[in-house]
Design brief:
The protein is an alpha/beta fold. The protein is 29% helix and 25% strand. Bound molecules: pyridoxal-5'-phosphate (PLP). This is Diaminopimelate decarboxylase.
Length: 454
């Protein structure tokens, strides 16, 4: 079933941009801004929970997709925990008040100190490889079996999607124990037999560009393995299957396709046993929860032509849309054109390039795109950038991280019933100040090299 048109969220987005201009959050002196639709985040969280209704599921959000404490706190309020992959991400989850039992710690490079902290705190850990498991053995001896849920990440090696760098389940992926390698499965079964406290099995077949059927194949491989292990040890030792995240996002329109319910339908067809109540499921979705809930607004500083090409020079480029600029075929974004008051421009489309502020020629977020003619003082909106774009800043040209605000839109009583009303903003992150840019650029050591004499 296709989702109803996402026009409600598009209308909220336009209202938020208009209000952000009115309130001076974006414009000539605040040339780039991230905006997040709080109602949209809640809707996405509820859609996820509804899709898995009927089975015991613990949902976590992949923190790297929006490493912003207020976002994690909002999701936590909706019952969604945190999947973390570094001490920084764990600190953010803790600062957001996410309880330990809702946190999952994955990473291919956990240090002994990080493992110790997680296990001592009761945070679930998914080991990536045999060497890491040996470290965990020592810590479990120290803290006691059952100190925290422990799982093993396996790579079902089901193949690649359309974006190589996003495909975690290829034959040679760096993640997890490669199940189809010679002897690997037997080793995994033995590893569980030797560790009665290891109760989880983890796989993550993602991400953008991977077909749902392939993702489901990855989950099936993990499920089949869990069944085999439980049969061999003679009890349901593995009681929790962590199926990862990775649901791709549609960047072509406002439609939410595929939705969580479609993925769950395919999972039910492919792996019916997953839903028969014997396993608790853990999920780790990132992009699919947040991408459509955020956008970047940027001021158009100048317009020009070069060799016959019409170019709008804006303040959103590689510093905020790094993947789009460096890999435009894999990460195209829709761009909206708005006038200086933040109203959508509706004039006839003209072919234009939309450039960013960075000093290299390839800093374009759209090439040869048909858009209403942009003028200096206008705004462009980069849609569907609520996941990864706010949290994956590129410090090129010492450009500061922009502010991020969340918005909600109230209702007013109109002649024909309730009509959309005032937009209210709440800060998620301040724009980085020049002092902060200086601090992370060694300003406190200004004279250190000059003073270093031989
Ligand atoms: C990145 C990641 C996710 C989330 O991926 P999305 O494509 O954003 O849903 C989940 N689990 C692990 C282990 C990851 O590395």
């Amino acid at each position: 079933m296709p989702q109803p048109p996402a026009s409600a969220s598009a209308a909220r987005r336009d209202a938020a941009l208009r209000a952000a201009v009115e309130q001076g959050l974006v414009g000539p002196d605040a040339p780039v801004l991230g905006l997040l639709d709080v109602a949209g985040v809640r809707e996405a969280a509820r859609a996820l929970k509804a899709a898995f209704a009927g089975v015991e599921a613990r949902h976590t959000f992949a923190v790297k997709a929006a490493s912003l404490v207020p976002v994690l706190a909002l999701l936590n309020e909706e019952g969604i925990g945190a999947e973390v992959a570094s001490p920084g991400e764990l600190a953010l989850a803790r600062a957001a008040g996410v309880p330990a039992e809702r946190i999952v710690f994955d990473s291919p490079a956990k240090t002994v100190g990080e493992l110790r902290d997680a296990l001592a705190s009761g945070i679930a850990v998914n080991a990536d490889n045999p060497q890491e498991l040996a470290r965990i053995d020592e810590l479990v001896e120290e803290f006691g079996a059952g100190c925290a849920p422990v799982g093993l990440r396996v790579n079902p090696q089901v193949g690649s999607g359309s974006i190589g760098a996003m495909s975690t389940a290829t034959a040679t992926s760096k993640f997890g124990v490669a199940l189809r390698d010679a002897g690997a499965e037997q080793w995994v079964i033995g590893a569980y037999k030797a560790r009665p406290w290891m109760t989880r099995l983890h796989t993550h077949t993602g991400s953008q560009g991977v077909a749902l059927e392939l993702m489901a194949e990855g989950v099936r491989a993990a499920y089949d393995l869990a069944e085999k292990i439980n049969a061999q040890v003679g009890r349901q030792q593995i009681d929790t299957l962590d199926i990862g995240g990775g649901l791709p996002v549609n960047f072509d329109s406002d439609a939410v396709t595929p939705g969580f319910e479609e993925y769950v339908r395919i999972l039910r067809e492919t792996v019916p046993g997953l839903f028969d109540g014997r396993y608790t499921l853990v999920t780790e979705f990132g992009r699919s929860l947040l991408a459509k809930q955020g956008f970047i607004a940027a001021h158009v500083e100048y317009t020009k032509t070069s060799g016959g090409r019409r170019i709008a020079v804006t303040h959103a480029g590689a510093q905020v849309a790094t993947r789009t600029v460096f890999a435009p075929e894999s990460w195209p974004l829709r761009v909206g054109a708005y006038d200086a008051e933040g109203r959508p421009r509706t004039t006839a489309p003209l072919v234009q390039d939309v450039a960013g502020p960075c000093c290299f020629a390839g800093d374009l977020v759209a090439r040869g795109r048909e858009l209403p003619e942009l003028e200096p003082g206008d705004l462009v909106a980069l849609y569907d950038t609520g996941a990864y774009y706010f949290s994956t800043h590129f410090h090129y040209n010492s450009l500061p991280r922009p502010a991020v605000y969340g918005y909600v839109q109230g209702y007013i009583q109109g002649e024909n019933g309730a009509e959309p009303g005032k937009v209210t903003f709440a800060p998620v992150r301040s724009a980085q100040s020049l002092d902060e840019v200086l601090a992370e650029s060694g300003a406190q050591y200004a004279g250190s090299l000059v003073g270093l004499v031989d």
